[in-house]
UniProtKB/TrEMBL annotation:
GO terms for biological process: L-amino acid transport. This is Branched-chain amino acid transport ATP-binding protein LivF. SMART domains: AAA (SM00382). It holds the Pfam family ABC_tran. One of its GO terms (molecular function) is branched-chain amino acid transmembrane transporter activity. The keyword Lyase does not apply. It comes from the Bacteria. Residues 7-239 form the ABC transporter domain. It comes from Pseudomyxococcus hansupus. CDD domains: ABC_TM1139_LivF_branched. InterPro entries: AAA+_ATPase, ABC_branched_ATPase_LivF/BraG, ABC_transporter-like_ATP-bd, ABC_transporter-like_CS, BCAA_Transport_ATP-bd_LivF, P-loop_NTPase. The lineage of its organism: Bacteria, Pseudomonadati, Myxococcota, Myxococcia, Myxococcales. SUPFAM superfamilies: P-loop containing nucleoside triphosphate hydrolases. Belongs to the ABC transporter superfamily.
């Protein structure tokens, strides 16, 4: 399966003071593709997503998105270009209702009818959000907040959805529901770059995967192939 290019990350380095978190990471995400980034704690997964979404600026390397050089762009410049980031820790606004959080996701859009239709769509994807649309987001369960963060990101109508640890702290059934929804979202043409500690889940869901170790890509391949690799099974699947 060949995907036309959408995101291309080429040799990016990220430093936090004296700490080098990324030592030259390269990866690509195609149009319609789901790509997983796996690796241990501190491997650099979150830093990679932050660099891609413009939350931090790499000290070296290049990022291109949708045919444009975006290396130095900030998050607010990337959202209108079709990139949405559902960060680790969810980042929903606790003192706003579910509905208000969702509407914020669409703040750059002017197509009122389209927004309304997409709100309804997110309620179809996540029925629990419909039931709770008047409830303050801070009172939702962890899983519900995760769903809200994903739904809110989708309301910007992204071509690329960046997802950080969607399974973190969630019960297996909730995680399963989220991954099922991810497949539905992807089926509508949205590309996904997914960071996950749960390698099994992530590689099962992904067309392609990258393994990060101490700031470097040490292995890459189709999700299914990585799942079958002895090295991945030993290091990341506890076998
Ligand atoms: P985790 O799964 O634990 O979130 P990760 O693979 O996402 O890990 P990063 O969060 O990208 O890894 O961190 C990569 C390295 O950079 C780690 O050694 C981490 O301690 C360091 N690091 C991350 N953020 C900062 C920061 N703000 N200041 C200093 N060091 C940081």
């Amino acid at each position: 399966q060949a995907f036309p290019p959408l995101l291309s990350v080429d040799g990016i380095k990220v430093h936090y003071g004296a700490i080098q978190a990324l030592k030259g990471v390269s990866l690509t995400v195609g149009k319609g593709e789901v790509v997983a980034l796996i690796g241990a704690n501190g491997a650099g997964k979150t830093s990679t997503l932050r660099a891609v979404s413009g939350m931090l600026k790499p000290s070296a390397g290049r990022i291109q998105f949708n045919g444009h050089e975006t290396t130095s762009m900030k998050a607010h410049q990337l959202v209108p270009r079709g990139m949405a980031h559902a960060p680790e820790g969810r980042g929903v606004f606790p003192n706003m209702s579910v509905q208000e959080n969702l509407e914020l996701g669409a703040y750059l859009r002017k197509d009122t009818a389209g927004i309304q239709a997409d709100l309804e769509k997110s309620f179809t994807l996540f029925p629990v959000l419909k039931e709770r649309r008047k409830q303050m987001a801070g009172t939702l369960s962890g899983g519900e907040q995760q769903m809200l963060a994903i739904a809110r990101a989708l309301l910007s109508k992204p071509q690329l959805l960046l997802l950080d640890e969607p399974s973190l702290g969630l019960a297996p059934q909730v995680t399963e529901a989220i991954f099922r929804t991810l497949r539905e979202v992807n089926a509508t043409g949205v590309s996904v770059l997914l960071v996950e500690q749960n390698a099994h889940l992530a590689l099962n869901a992904a067309h392609y995967g990258y393994v990060l170790e101490t700031g470097e890509v040490v292995m890459a391949g189709p999700g299914k192939a990585l799942l079958e690799s002895a090295e991945v099974r030993r290091a990341y699947l506890g076998e």
